[in-house]
Design brief:
With about 300 residues, the chain is mainly α. It has helices at about 25, 30-35, 40-55, 60-70, 75-85, 95-105, 110-120, 130-140, 145-155, 160-175, 180-195, 200-210, 215-230, 235-245, 250-260, 265-280, 285-300. It is elongated, with a radius of gyration of 22 Å.
Length: about 300
Protein backbone atom coordinates (compact mmCIF):
# COMPACT_ATOMS: atom_id res chain seq x y z
CA UNK A 1 0.00 0.00 0.00
CA UNK A 2 1.24 3.46 -0.80
CA UNK A 3 2.04 5.71 2.11
CA UNK A 4 2.46 9.38 2.77
CA UNK A 5 5.83 11.02 2.63
CA UNK A 6 7.29 12.45 5.82
CA UNK A 7 7.25 15.80 4.01
CA UNK A 8 3.52 15.90 4.71
CA UNK A 9 3.51 17.72 8.01
CA UNK A 10 0.90 17.33 10.73
CA UNK A 11 -2.23 19.25 9.88
CA UNK A 12 -2.61 21.42 12.95
CA UNK A 13 0.99 22.11 13.88
CA UNK A 14 1.68 25.81 14.14
CA UNK A 15 4.26 27.29 11.81
CA UNK A 16 7.49 26.95 13.78
CA UNK A 17 8.88 30.35 14.53
CA UNK A 18 10.40 32.57 17.16
CA UNK A 19 10.03 35.90 15.44
CA UNK A 20 10.69 38.02 18.52
CA UNK A 21 14.04 36.49 19.39
CA UNK A 22 16.05 39.32 17.90
CA UNK A 23 15.48 42.92 16.96
CA UNK A 24 16.54 42.29 13.37
CA UNK A 25 13.94 39.60 12.69
CA UNK A 26 11.34 41.54 14.66
CA UNK A 27 11.55 44.28 12.07
CA UNK A 28 10.75 41.77 9.35
CA UNK A 29 7.96 39.88 11.11
CA UNK A 30 5.27 41.12 8.74
CA UNK A 31 7.17 40.18 5.59
CA UNK A 32 8.19 36.79 6.99
CA UNK A 33 4.60 35.98 7.92
CA UNK A 34 3.40 37.08 4.46
CA UNK A 35 5.96 34.93 2.63
CA UNK A 36 5.32 31.88 4.81
CA UNK A 37 1.54 32.20 4.48
CA UNK A 38 1.84 32.54 0.70
CA UNK A 39 4.52 29.83 0.46
CA UNK A 40 6.76 32.34 -1.29
CA UNK A 41 9.96 30.53 -0.37
CA UNK A 42 12.24 32.23 -2.91
CA UNK A 43 11.13 35.62 -1.60
CA UNK A 44 11.76 34.45 1.96
CA UNK A 45 15.24 33.30 0.97
CA UNK A 46 16.02 36.70 -0.54
CA UNK A 47 14.72 38.46 2.56
CA UNK A 48 16.94 36.37 4.85
CA UNK A 49 19.97 37.27 2.75
CA UNK A 50 19.15 40.94 3.29
CA UNK A 51 18.65 40.32 7.02
CA UNK A 52 22.01 38.55 7.31
CA UNK A 53 23.81 41.30 5.39
CA UNK A 54 22.56 43.78 7.99
CA UNK A 55 23.24 41.59 11.02
CA UNK A 56 25.42 38.55 10.49
CA UNK A 57 24.82 37.46 14.09
CA UNK A 58 21.02 37.21 13.90
CA UNK A 59 20.12 33.53 14.56
CA UNK A 60 16.53 33.97 13.40
CA UNK A 61 17.67 35.12 9.97
CA UNK A 62 19.56 31.86 9.59
CA UNK A 63 16.59 29.90 10.94
CA UNK A 64 14.24 31.32 8.32
CA UNK A 65 16.93 30.83 5.68
CA UNK A 66 16.92 27.17 6.64
CA UNK A 67 13.13 27.03 6.36
CA UNK A 68 13.25 28.58 2.89
CA UNK A 69 15.93 26.19 1.66
CA UNK A 70 14.04 23.21 3.09
CA UNK A 71 10.82 24.18 1.34
CA UNK A 72 12.77 24.67 -1.89
CA UNK A 73 13.97 21.04 -1.59
CA UNK A 74 17.57 22.00 -0.83
CA UNK A 75 18.36 20.08 2.36
CA UNK A 76 22.14 20.63 2.45
CA UNK A 77 22.07 24.47 2.66
CA UNK A 78 19.01 24.08 4.88
CA UNK A 79 21.02 22.07 7.42
CA UNK A 80 23.88 24.56 7.16
CA UNK A 81 21.55 27.47 7.89
CA UNK A 82 19.88 25.73 10.83
CA UNK A 83 23.27 24.78 12.28
CA UNK A 84 24.40 28.39 11.94
CA UNK A 85 21.32 29.51 13.86
CA UNK A 86 22.10 26.92 16.53
CA UNK A 87 25.71 28.09 16.86
CA UNK A 88 24.45 31.65 17.29
CA UNK A 89 22.41 30.59 20.30
CA UNK A 90 18.99 29.60 18.93
CA UNK A 91 17.79 26.60 20.90
CA UNK A 92 14.06 25.94 20.72
CA UNK A 93 11.71 23.11 19.64
CA UNK A 94 10.98 24.72 16.25
CA UNK A 95 14.66 24.75 15.32
CA UNK A 96 15.27 21.14 16.35
CA UNK A 97 12.13 19.92 14.59
CA UNK A 98 13.08 21.74 11.37
CA UNK A 99 16.70 20.59 11.55
CA UNK A 100 15.50 17.03 12.10
CA UNK A 101 13.36 17.12 8.95
CA UNK A 102 16.29 18.45 6.93
CA UNK A 103 18.47 15.62 8.24
CA UNK A 104 15.72 13.18 7.23
CA UNK A 105 15.84 14.44 3.65
CA UNK A 106 19.57 13.66 3.67
CA UNK A 107 18.93 10.12 5.01
CA UNK A 108 20.73 11.08 8.22
CA UNK A 109 18.23 9.14 10.29
CA UNK A 110 20.17 8.96 13.56
CA UNK A 111 20.52 12.75 13.55
CA UNK A 112 16.84 13.08 12.60
CA UNK A 113 15.82 11.01 15.63
CA UNK A 114 18.13 12.96 17.91
CA UNK A 115 16.68 16.30 16.85
CA UNK A 116 13.05 15.12 17.11
CA UNK A 117 13.61 13.76 20.61
CA UNK A 118 15.25 17.05 21.62
CA UNK A 119 12.27 18.98 20.24
CA UNK A 120 9.87 16.71 22.13
CA UNK A 121 11.87 17.07 25.36
CA UNK A 122 11.84 20.87 25.07
CA UNK A 123 8.10 20.96 24.34
CA UNK A 124 6.41 17.79 25.66
CA UNK A 125 2.97 19.07 24.59
CA UNK A 126 3.91 19.32 20.90
CA UNK A 127 2.58 16.32 18.97
CA UNK A 128 4.57 16.91 15.76
CA UNK A 129 7.82 15.12 16.79
CA UNK A 130 5.83 12.00 17.72
CA UNK A 131 4.06 12.15 14.36
CA UNK A 132 7.33 12.44 12.43
CA UNK A 133 9.00 9.70 14.46
CA UNK A 134 5.99 7.48 13.75
CA UNK A 135 6.32 8.05 10.00
CA UNK A 136 10.02 7.25 10.23
CA UNK A 137 9.40 4.01 12.13
CA UNK A 138 6.75 2.98 9.60
CA UNK A 139 8.28 4.05 6.28
CA UNK A 140 11.99 3.47 6.93
CA UNK A 141 12.15 0.80 9.63
CA UNK A 142 8.90 -1.05 8.78
CA UNK A 143 8.25 -1.14 12.52
CA UNK A 144 4.46 -1.08 12.64
CA UNK A 145 4.26 -1.57 16.40
CA UNK A 146 6.78 1.17 17.14
CA UNK A 147 5.08 3.51 14.69
CA UNK A 148 1.68 2.84 16.26
CA UNK A 149 3.03 3.79 19.68
CA UNK A 150 4.25 7.14 18.35
CA UNK A 151 1.02 7.85 16.46
CA UNK A 152 -1.04 7.04 19.55
CA UNK A 153 1.12 9.49 21.45
CA UNK A 154 0.53 12.14 18.80
CA UNK A 155 -3.24 11.58 18.96
CA UNK A 156 -3.18 11.88 22.75
CA UNK A 157 -1.32 15.19 22.48
CA UNK A 158 -3.57 16.55 19.74
CA UNK A 159 -6.85 14.74 19.20
CA UNK A 160 -7.85 17.20 16.47
CA UNK A 161 -5.08 16.24 14.03
CA UNK A 162 -6.57 14.20 11.16
CA UNK A 163 -3.22 12.98 9.85
CA UNK A 164 -2.20 11.44 13.18
CA UNK A 165 -5.63 9.79 13.47
CA UNK A 166 -5.25 8.38 9.95
CA UNK A 167 -1.76 7.02 10.60
CA UNK A 168 -2.96 5.40 13.83
CA UNK A 169 -5.69 3.70 11.82
CA UNK A 170 -3.28 2.60 9.11
CA UNK A 171 -0.97 0.93 11.63
CA UNK A 172 -3.96 -0.76 13.25
CA UNK A 173 -5.07 -2.01 9.82
CA UNK A 174 -1.59 -3.39 9.14
CA UNK A 175 -1.69 -5.09 12.55
CA UNK A 176 -4.98 -6.81 11.70
CA UNK A 177 -7.05 -4.76 14.15
CA UNK A 178 -9.68 -3.86 11.57
CA UNK A 179 -12.40 -2.70 13.96
CA UNK A 180 -10.03 -0.30 15.74
CA UNK A 181 -8.61 0.86 12.41
CA UNK A 182 -12.13 1.66 11.25
CA UNK A 183 -12.71 3.81 14.33
CA UNK A 184 -9.50 5.77 13.70
CA UNK A 185 -10.28 6.25 10.01
CA UNK A 186 -13.80 7.49 10.78
CA UNK A 187 -12.41 9.89 13.41
CA UNK A 188 -9.91 11.19 10.84
CA UNK A 189 -12.71 11.60 8.26
CA UNK A 190 -14.79 13.56 10.75
CA UNK A 191 -11.87 15.92 11.38
CA UNK A 192 -11.14 16.26 7.67
CA UNK A 193 -14.74 17.22 6.97
CA UNK A 194 -14.98 19.58 9.92
CA UNK A 195 -11.87 21.40 8.72
CA UNK A 196 -12.63 21.04 4.99
CA UNK A 197 -9.22 19.59 4.20
CA UNK A 198 -8.14 17.96 0.91
CA UNK A 199 -6.97 14.78 2.60
CA UNK A 200 -8.19 11.54 1.03
CA UNK A 201 -6.17 8.91 2.90
CA UNK A 202 -8.71 7.91 5.57
CA UNK A 203 -11.31 7.47 2.82
CA UNK A 204 -8.92 5.14 1.01
CA UNK A 205 -8.46 3.24 4.26
CA UNK A 206 -12.22 2.86 4.70
CA UNK A 207 -12.52 1.69 1.07
CA UNK A 208 -10.01 -1.08 1.73
CA UNK A 209 -11.78 -2.17 4.90
CA UNK A 210 -15.29 -2.01 3.44
CA UNK A 211 -14.29 -3.86 0.26
CA UNK A 212 -14.88 -7.10 2.16
CA UNK A 213 -18.03 -5.83 3.84
CA UNK A 214 -19.99 -3.52 1.55
CA UNK A 215 -18.80 -2.81 -1.99
CA UNK A 216 -21.30 0.03 -2.33
CA UNK A 217 -19.86 1.87 0.67
CA UNK A 218 -16.29 1.02 -0.33
CA UNK A 219 -16.90 2.53 -3.77
CA UNK A 220 -18.19 5.78 -2.24
CA UNK A 221 -15.18 6.07 0.03
CA UNK A 222 -12.76 5.33 -2.83
CA UNK A 223 -14.42 7.95 -5.05
CA UNK A 224 -14.18 10.52 -2.26
CA UNK A 225 -10.45 9.88 -1.86
CA UNK A 226 -9.94 10.54 -5.58
CA UNK A 227 -12.14 13.63 -5.41
CA UNK A 228 -10.09 15.12 -2.57
CA UNK A 229 -6.65 14.23 -3.95
CA UNK A 230 -6.90 13.53 -7.69
CA UNK A 231 -3.12 13.59 -8.12
CA UNK A 232 -2.50 10.73 -5.66
CA UNK A 233 -2.02 7.52 -7.72
CA UNK A 234 -2.81 5.14 -4.87
CA UNK A 235 -6.32 6.61 -4.61
CA UNK A 236 -6.97 5.79 -8.27
CA UNK A 237 -5.43 2.34 -7.80
CA UNK A 238 -7.73 1.58 -4.86
CA UNK A 239 -10.76 2.82 -6.79
CA UNK A 240 -9.77 0.62 -9.74
CA UNK A 241 -9.64 -2.43 -7.48
CA UNK A 242 -13.08 -1.66 -6.07
CA UNK A 243 -14.47 -1.30 -9.59
CA UNK A 244 -12.96 -4.67 -10.47
CA UNK A 245 -14.62 -6.29 -7.47
CA UNK A 246 -17.95 -4.72 -8.39
CA UNK A 247 -17.68 -5.94 -11.99
CA UNK A 248 -17.26 -2.55 -13.68
CA UNK A 249 -14.20 -3.49 -15.73
CA UNK A 250 -14.15 -0.44 -18.05
CA UNK A 251 -14.23 1.96 -15.09
CA UNK A 252 -11.51 -0.10 -13.41
CA UNK A 253 -9.31 0.15 -16.50
CA UNK A 254 -9.76 3.92 -16.59
CA UNK A 255 -8.69 4.37 -12.96
CA UNK A 256 -5.81 1.89 -13.18
CA UNK A 257 -4.51 3.70 -16.27
CA UNK A 258 -4.58 7.00 -14.38
CA UNK A 259 -2.63 5.40 -11.51
CA UNK A 260 0.00 4.00 -13.90
CA UNK A 261 0.31 7.34 -15.72
CA UNK A 262 0.75 9.23 -12.46
CA UNK A 263 3.27 6.68 -11.19
CA UNK A 264 4.85 4.83 -14.16
CA UNK A 265 6.85 2.52 -11.89
CA UNK A 266 3.74 1.34 -10.01
CA UNK A 267 4.09 -2.40 -10.69
CA UNK A 268 0.86 -3.34 -8.91
CA UNK A 269 -1.11 -0.95 -11.14
CA UNK A 270 0.41 -2.61 -14.19
CA UNK A 271 -0.57 -6.05 -12.96
CA UNK A 272 -4.08 -4.82 -12.19
CA UNK A 273 -4.32 -3.47 -15.75
CA UNK A 274 -3.18 -6.84 -17.09
CA UNK A 275 -5.92 -8.54 -15.11
CA UNK A 276 -8.59 -6.04 -16.15
CA UNK A 277 -7.68 -6.12 -19.84
CA UNK A 278 -7.75 -9.91 -19.76
CA UNK A 279 -11.25 -9.80 -18.23
CA UNK A 280 -12.27 -7.31 -20.92
CA UNK A 281 -11.06 -9.70 -23.64
CA UNK A 282 -8.27 -7.37 -24.78
CA UNK A 283 -5.41 -9.86 -25.06
CA UNK A 284 -2.94 -7.49 -26.75
CA UNK A 285 -3.23 -4.82 -24.06
CA UNK A 286 -3.15 -7.48 -21.33
CA UNK A 287 0.11 -8.91 -22.70
CA UNK A 288 1.64 -5.43 -22.94
CA UNK A 289 0.81 -4.65 -19.32
CA UNK A 290 2.11 -8.02 -18.15
CA UNK A 291 5.45 -7.31 -19.85
CA UNK A 292 5.57 -3.89 -18.16
CA UNK A 293 4.84 -5.53 -14.80
CA UNK A 294 7.57 -8.15 -15.30
CA UNK A 295 10.09 -5.47 -16.30
CA UNK A 296 9.31 -3.36 -13.23
CA UNK A 297 9.56 -6.39 -10.97
CA UNK A 298 12.93 -7.29 -12.46
CA UNK A 299 14.28 -3.76 -11.99
CA UNK A 300 12.74 -2.75 -8.66
CA UNK A 301 11.74 -6.07 -7.08
CA UNK A 302 8.25 -7.03 -5.93
CA UNK A 303 6.25 -4.35 -4.12
Amino acid sequence: MAQQSIANSPSNSSQPSDLSASSTSHGHNGAIAEFVEGKRWADLLNLTQSMISKNVSDPNAYYWRGVAYFQLRRPIPSVQAFRAAEKLGLDNPALHEALGLAYYDLNQFALFEEQMKTASHQDPKNFAPAYYLGLYRLSIQSDVGGALEYFRGAVQLNSSDWKSAYQEGYCLELSGSTAQARDSYLRSIRLVEENRQPFGWPYQGMARIDANRSLKEALQYAKKAVELEPDEPSHHFTLAKIYEQSGDISAGIKEARIASLQEPNHAAARYLLFRLYRKAGNAASADAELKQFQTLNAVYGPE
